[in-house]
Amino acid sequence: MGKNQGHKQTQRSRYTGGDGGGTGDYNDGMKDVSFHTAEWHAARIANLTVERIGWEEWRSKQKEAEGKLAAAAEEEERKMRDYRAQLDADRKKLLARGRNHEDLAKEIKDEKKRKRKEKKSKKESKDKDKKSKKSKKSKKRRRSDSGSSSSDSSSDSDSEGKGGEGEPGGEEDPNKPMRLSDWLKM
């Protein structure tokens, strides 16, 4: 007895109950199907015995499906042609009018006028806001200026004339910005 034949005999005895010639599931070494249940085998046999459609029936169903797809594609293409024709007609209509068509020119002028009026109204409202702010500021300045004497204003103007880096006799304010010409003299 060869090596493989001995192994096969042990496998047979394992699945047949150990006596070597029983009626249990038998593995012939080709495929191990011992793990499947009896219900699984019954379902598999039932599945194999189901009646299937013939080639002609299947082919006719495939042709029907292809026909539906072709009809949908043809409909889509027809819609696209109609859409392009409409676009071309609109384009020709606009080009036929020309650039110096009167009613088109009027529409453009009216649009420009409307935009100008909107800009003016916005600008006027901004100007009114600025004027009201300026008038409030000037009122505040007048009140503060009326409290100070005229000698204060003359002393301020004198100190401004004396100050400067190149000029003797004056100390420059550190917060005052420097002129470019003064900086270049350094």
Can you tell me about this structure?
With 186 residues, the protein is mainly α. Among the domains are: 57-97; 102-134. It has helices at 3-16, 38-48, 55-97, 102-147, 150-162, 180-185.
Describe the secondary-structure layout.
Blueprint: H1 3-16, H2 38-48, H3 55-97, H4 102-147, H5 150-162, H6 180-185
Biased composition (Basic residues): 1-11, 112-123, 131-143
Region (Disordered): 1-31, 60-80, 92-186
Biased composition (Basic and acidic residues): 92-111
Residue-averaged pLDDT:
76
Between the first and last Cα atoms, what is the distance in angstroms? Answer: 118 Å
The helix tally amounts to: 6
Class derived from helix and strand content: mainly alpha
Give the overall shape: elongated
Short synopsis of the structure:
About 10% of the residues have low confidence. It is built from six helices and no strands.
Please tag this protein with its features.
186 residues; mainly alpha; elongated
